Amino acid sequence: MVERRQWATSVQSGAARAVVLGINDGLVTNISLILGIVGATDRPSVVQLAGLASLVAGACSMAVGEYVSMRAQVELLERLLVEEREAIRTNPEREQALLQDTLQRHGFNEATARAATKELSRDPERALAVYSRAVLGVNPEELGSPWTSAVSSLLTFAFGALVPLLPWFITTGFSAVVSSLVLAGGAAVAIGGLLGKLTDGRWMRSALRQLLVITLASAITFLVGKLFGTTVF
User: Fold this and answer.
1) How far apart are CA 222 and CA 139, in angstroms?
2) pLDDT tens, position by position, 16-46
């Protein structure tokens, strides 16, 4: 129960989403970029520079995007709670009727729902907490953290982007290309397998799907690099 609650909290806070998207986006972005550049030129310094630039720019972009989206989400939810608190204060009968109806639709009999609503109405904050969960589907204590999402996105994108880039600082040429592909493919399978295991349990299907996605993206950018390749001075 505790583990499920912690996982649910992580999902609602945006941290889990930021981690998954960050690693996946960093991985797909940089392996695709690297192969696109390889299709155009074989100079390792170009791959290194472009890969690092992509890592930094992508990580910052992901962090800013996550912060802005989560900040907007939190502010919207906070506004809903403020409006509901005001509605409970100015029109308590209507809100009690809505809460009682919601409890009945969730399986409580009329007498129990009425008694619970009456008890909650004595404490407006408790009534707001129950109403927001039951009617709005919002937990007022867990609205999410913009900073947590931003930092998670920054770090995980950078990590994902670094995986296929590392071989280019160790070796060059065909060996670097193969190493990048192997590392990126292994990371894609691991991410897909983990997602599958955490969701529907079908880790193999999820892992293969993730591998297919990264393969298609890499193949497309490699072909583009080949078609529009030019000598880099």
Assistant:
1) 46
2) 566 777 888 899 889 988 888 888 776 888 9
